[in-house]
Amino acid sequence: MAELSWRDGATPVSAAFGEGYFGASDSLGEARHVFLGGNDLPARFRDGFHIAELGFGTGLNAVAAAHAWRESGTAGTLRITSFEAWPMAAEDMARALAPWPDLEPHARALVAAWAAGARRCELPGADAGGAVVIEVIEGDARLTLPRWPGRADAWFLDGFSPARNPELWEPGLIAEVAARSAPGATFATYSAAGAVRSALTAAGFTVERVRGFANKKHMTRGRLIPGSGVTGEPGVEGASP
């Protein structure tokens, strides 16, 4: 389990990486700007849309996506698969997600499942039916991602900063991200580091440096170049339709 301290009583800080899980005072606004907006969501939502994420952390990005899915009224199922090496304790997750009452129904369902030991759970979807299915795969992503049979339509690249957590930004792992992307897949990340952009370019993504959130000058987004990344057929479970 992740060992934490709390900055100002509200921001969880990783003892292993010496960095806060939230990079802005408006963390939900940042999640929406970087990861949802950076992937053109919710405009691209459709039944069976699959988000994959490096770094589950507090679960904020996943819960924000689930809320956006419900608010969009899209029928069917949204899938979110996240890769996390240092899972957070349920009580810490609940504390981290508590400031956002709009997210409470989704956060409550996630925390309850997490406390029960489940790493796959279903959150409520649109009133028209359907659901949001979240699965968290624990372990070093350099080992677990190559074994994942799915294909993502959008990637949230949200590890700790490359300076603190270089393993989650290695070119080899970014190449695995591309290899497990559906045609037309997109990515978004708060990082604008040159090494990160170079790894994404080498993996076959277009790379665009755009305005970051609040006081952060830049972030990065892009799309898989046709013919890049996808190798072979994905497995049945977790694959995008």
Give a verbal description of the structure.
The structure is a single chain. The strands form two sheets. The protein has an eight-stranded mixed beta sheet. It has a three-stranded antiparallel beta sheet with strand order 1-2-3, with no helix packed on it. A hairpin with a 2-residue loop joins strand 6 (120-126) and strand 7. It has helices spanning 27-36, 60-72, 90-97, 104-115, 141-144, 171-179, 194-203; strands at 4-7, 11-14, 19-20, 50-54, 77-84, 120-126, 129-138, 152-157, 181-189, 208-211, 218-223. It has 241 residues and is α/β, with parallel strands linked by helices. The protein starts with a strand and ends in an 18-residue tail after the last strand.
Secondary-structure blueprint of this entry?
Blueprint: E1 4-7, E2 11-14, E3 19-20, H1 27-36, E4 50-54, H2 60-72, E5 77-84, H3 90-97, H4 104-115, E6 120-126, E7 129-138, H5 141-144, E8 152-157, H6 171-179, E9 181-189, H7 194-203, E10 208-211, E11 218-223
Parallel strand pairs: 4-5, 4-8, 5-7, 8-9
Antiparallel strand pairs: 1-2, 2-3, 6-7, 9-11, 10-11
Helix pairs in contact: 1-2, 3-4, 6-7
Keywords:
single chain; about 240 residues; alpha/beta; Rossmann fold; eight-stranded mixed sheet; three-stranded antiparallel sheet; 11 strands; about 25% strand; globular
Q: Can you summarize this structure?
A:
The chain is of the alpha/beta class. It has seven helices and eleven strands.
